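Local shape tokens

___
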Amino acid sequence: MSTNCIICIKNKRTGSDLLCDTCRRDQEKWQAEMQQMVITRLRAWLGYDGQAFFQMCVEQYGNIASAVWTEGGLPHPVHLREGMAVRNFMRDMHMDLLGETLDSSIEHYYDDNWVSAVMAVIACENQEPEEVPIERSGGETEKR
């Protein structure tokens, strides 16, 4: 996020990363919006089956990153297999949303935070669904 604030531009010229209160609040708001966008897109990409898979990992292994089991005599490390697919999706999504290439700090951010993003998706899915009125034929209404 770039800023046009005179105070912040002066700070950048002197090598400081300090932001004025207004720019800091704008940056925090932008980051919160980006996080919500990531969660929304990740939820759609995972779909029901992907969310159920990661939920199973949490229930059976305590967390996603340490879930490992054996398939056909070979280890199935979730962190390396499904985790890599999630990280790659997040990287691609970043480039699509912002139209910029990834630097190593962003790569590391996704490597370090993919589990948190998946956990946020699972937490959202575990909330009680809102009751939505469904109108049936004959004028009856049912809540789902």
